[in-house]
Amino acid sequence: MRGYLVGKVVQAFLTLLFVLVFNFFLFRVMPGDPAALLLRGSSAYNPQNVAQVRHELGLDQPLPQQFVTYLKDTATFKFGDSFFMQGRPVSTTIRERIWPTILLVGTSTIASIAIGLLIGIYAGWRRNTRFDYGWLGVTLVLYACPEFYLGILVLMAFGAGVGPFPALFPIGGYSTPGAGLSGFSYWIDVLNHLVMPWFTLTFAYLGEYTLIMRSSLIDVLGDEFVMTARAKGVRENDILWRHVVPNALLPTWTLTMLSLGFIFGGAITIELVFSYPGVGWLTVQAITAKDYPLMQALFLLFSGAVIIANLVADITYMYLDPRVRAA
Amino acid sequence: MRSKGRVIVMLAVVAVVAGGISAGAAYAQNESSSGTKQKVTFVWGDTSEPSSLNPMRGYMATDFYFWTSSYHLLTDFTINDLSARPGLAEKIDVSPDGMTFTYHIRQGIKWSDGQPLTANDVAFTLNMYKSNHAYLPQAYLTLIDGDVQATDDYTVVFHSTMPTSLYTGKIPYLYDYILPEHIWSKFDQPKQYDNYSAFEGVPAGEVGSGPFVIAEYKTGEFVRMVRNPYWSGPQPHVDELIYRIYKNEDAEAEALKAGEIDFGYFDSANIFNSLKGQPNIATLNGTIPSFDEIGMNTGSAYQKAGNGYTPHGDGHPALQDPIVRRAIRMAIDSQTLVDKVLLGYGLPGTSIIPPVSVLGARWEPTGDEVIPFDIAGANKLLDDAGYKDTDGDDVREMPGGGQPLEFRYYVQTGDQNTIKVAPFVKSWLADIGIKADVTAMSSGRLGDEINAGTYDLFHWGWIPDPDPDSALSWFTCEQRPPDGSSYGNNDSYYCNPEYDKLYTEQRTELDVQKRWDVAHQMQKMYYESCAYAVLWYGPILQAYRTDLFTGYMPQPSPKGDLLAGYSMDIWWNLRPLGAAGGAPRTSGISAGVWIGLVIGVIVVIAAVVLGRRSRRAGEEQA
User: Fold this and answer.
1) Which of residues 559-598 of B touch A (CB under 8 A)?
2) Of A155, B136, B350, B568, which residue is 20 to 30 A from B383 by alpha carbon distance?
């Protein structure tokens, strides 16, 4: 078992190393010069300024030199300065967006998983009943609906108000600027800003977990040990929660862990609709502006989170499924 | 027994929720009746993020709103027509040879930390811009010879490398914001300072001389400005300015309707139209100093080498011919594009100097000078010049039956307007026997194609300065991308020695009106060359609440930017209307309801769990 664990950790580390090197070259093969992109269209766009910006961004150095600088900076957790944020440290920029991202995407992912799994369990247990058909329909519709479209509907219904119903929540942002709130009042304000994007994201994705859980549960229900349990007179409730669900959870476990790993990727379309300051939209801005340091740091963060989540999934799966341990 | 238990649980939930609401209401009541005077806050929104709040690095139009309200210019813009008026320099003396300039600095102005603003600040700032290669500001200082000197506390002197009217104060050319020496001298690399964070020996918050200074900036969210306590001009009626950054205009429009913001800028004509007629909202379609163009490769591969230029690329040879370019211009109907793509907002384009520019700078073609939309006329031009369709495929060939007039036409994936324009232009060009192959690409790749000269037509745009000098400089020979891999402003590769001569002449002309005459000649020359087909001058779509604030000042009058993008007068002219104007705008569910909801959810979960346990116990007993 120790060998298995060590192997997995080494594999994860090597994957991360590959990502580190690959990212550096991947972004540099994209067309366009970041220096020119920053200035084009403004009066500042002239060959002298472009050359100056290239120098300030370190882009006039030979590529091997840039790569060595990149490796050194990454190893010491100095990710350089953002191009399009005009010299703002990358670590500061990402740090400002991480907490709102975790607050929104993290909590909504956990809620989506919890609610989705619960609905999936009951839908599978009561398959072919009205409960099953009803919830299957609802979750399929929500899952099929583009999340930005759902977000706009939510925004218009609860942010703008419909007919006689007043607007309930603020239109966008993380908090109300200039309101001078602090302590409990501030967090209530943040909560009010969080409601609409949170609900949109939660309900847009719970269908994924519902469907997988339902199908996994139905699959397990057909196993012989379930029939054996019933024959032994075990209560239905115990059959479901003590025998069926633990086995049905296994396929969803890896999906769940990967979903948790994707939290750090943000939610681009939701952030766009609700003007929420998350990491997702920051990534789009970094890519559009060819902001190498910011892109490198962000992609390292995403990759690292998913690799670690995958590693945790592999390790915990071993404990969840005795068959893996025995093998 | 079970149903009784459920009833008890439900009643408990209702009681807790009701109690929570009451407690929250009382809590909110206490908070609102504290008796303190509410500050007046003006909130305006847009989807544009500042590029930098540091005047040495920033270059976007958005950035200027913050500098305009927190710093002085030496020569200011008037509100009505962007002509010059004294700014920080209340008087300017010019030597007879037009090469020595003495600026007399206004007295009694203080920085927001109480320090006096003196000539040392002016000299320091201009020298700092020059020596640190500040992106925008140093462009206006290129004619200054050596350093700017402060000869006493309120006098600044400098010399120019050639006679010029640019620094005489008769035109607002010196678009350089003056910064405090006692703050900016603390930085070894002043470009690295973000202009609002605390630094060694530098307190948090911007130090400025205008009516407002930057207090806070949350990237992706907002910029907050507060009153300058030492501002000596007319007192503002507003305590705080907040610029909200939205990521989509639908949300911004809803925020305006909900009163979360007082004013908004919009790019989408559809969303702007949706705001018209809304209660308590007024709209204004103004113009900004920007234009969109179809640029043509006038011969990157065929021009003579020399003066640092190497022919490169593979542009179509037909575009070297001004007749072909003129025919293309005649085939494009700018009015239709304004009507169909901009939904009637904006103005059809002609000259490279937009209508919003320093008074007198712009030339407008009249009478026979105008190149009309005329498909028949374009066809005749091409026929007479020998570009005929010799093989019957509806595409003309070069004179003598050579290469067909098939052009690469590049548009940008990041600018929907360029994509919307393409079908119109393609169709019109087909009407005159030219085939356009449209390709959409990122602006990054388009920049590479232009610098490599591997294009024929493209769609892009510019935002020139109010003074035409920088815009006119873009089309000089030395501004062409020189070798296929380096950058240059002159993306049409237009090169005319006569034009270059006139450029130098307008820089050195001491008489302002004569300078404008030369600038007009240059614009006419470029217009007639048709290296660009200027499609339109962009609109500025503005909407604002009529029940919250008054005092907007369109600059230039009457249809310019309502927040007067070049001058600070707006910031003491704005005043709140009634009690609602400038009031705090938190919204959402109150704390009490949240408390009640959370407790209610906890009680329900607890009831379900307890209920399940008691049912199990009952089953076991049975």
Assistant:
1) 584-591, 594
2) B350
Q: Is B191–A42 a contact, with Cβ atoms under 8 angstroms apart?
A: no
Cβ <8 Å between A44 and B591:
no
What is the Cα–Cα distance from A175 to A152, expressed in whole angstroms?
19
Residue B569, classed as helix, strand or coil, is: coil
In whole angstroms, what is the distance from residue B16 CA to residue B476 CA?
76
Amino acid present at A102: I
Among candidates A36, A87, A189 on the partner chain, residue whose Cβ is nearest the Cβ of B447: A36
Separation in Å, CA B499 to CA B104, B198, B495, B519, B529: 36, 49, 8, 10, 11
| 3-state SS, residue B95 | coil
Beta strands in B161-299 (DSSP E): 212-218, 222-227, 240-245, 263-266, 281-296
pTM check: above 0.90: no
- B355 in contact with chain A, both atoms CB, cutoff 8 A: no
C-alpha to C-alpha distance for A209 and A112, rounded to whole angstroms = 8
Mutate to test the interface with B, among A86, A174, A195, A196 (most CBs of B within 10 A): A86
Q: Which residue has the tokens 């000269």?
A: B453
What Å distances lie between residue B399 and B211, B318, B384, B403, B404, CA to CA? 65, 9, 10, 9, 10
Nearest to B510 by CA among B165, B160, B102, B95: B165
pLDDT for position B285: 93
**B578-581: long-range pairs with CB below 8 Å, 24+:** B578/B547, B580/B259, B580/B547, B580/B548, B581/B40, B581/B262, B581/B547, B581/B548, B581/B549
Is A277 part of the contact surface with chain B (CB cutoff 8 Å)? yes
- Smallest CA-to-CA distance from B454 within B312, B572, B555, B614 is with B312
ipTM confidence score:
0.82
Q: Would you say the C-alpha torsion B197, B199, B203, B209 has a positive or negative sign?
A: negative
| Chain A, nearest residue to B448 by Cα | A32
B285: which residues sit within 8 A by CB, 6+ positions away? Answer: B272, B345, B539, B540, B541, B542, B559
Span B111-137, pLDDT tens digits: 999 999 999 999 999 999 999 888 888
- The interface residues of chain B toward chain A in range 459-488, judged by CB-CB distance below 8 A, are 460-465, 470-471, 473, 479, 482, 486-488
Of the partner residues A37, A96, A171, the one whose CB lies closest to the CB of residue B219: A96
- Which chain A residue lies closest to B612 (C-alpha atoms)? A237
Alpha carbon A216 to chain centroid, angstroms: 24
Taking alpha carbons only, the member of B291, B306, B593, B594 closest to residue B460 is: B291
Could you report the per-residue pLDDT of B265-322, keeping only the tens digit for each? 998 899 999 999 999 999 999 887 899 999 999 999 999 999 899 999 999 999 999 9
Q: Are B556 and B362 in contact (CB under 8 A)?
A: no
Chain A closest CA to B9's CA: distance in Å?
Answer: 23
Q: Shortest Cα distance from A106 to chain B (angstroms)?
A: 19
The pairing of beta strand B155-160 with beta strand B144-152 = antiparallel
Q: Which residue of B has its CA nearest to A86?
A: B52
Phi-psi region of B13 (alpha: psi -120 to 50; beta: other; left: phi over 0): alpha
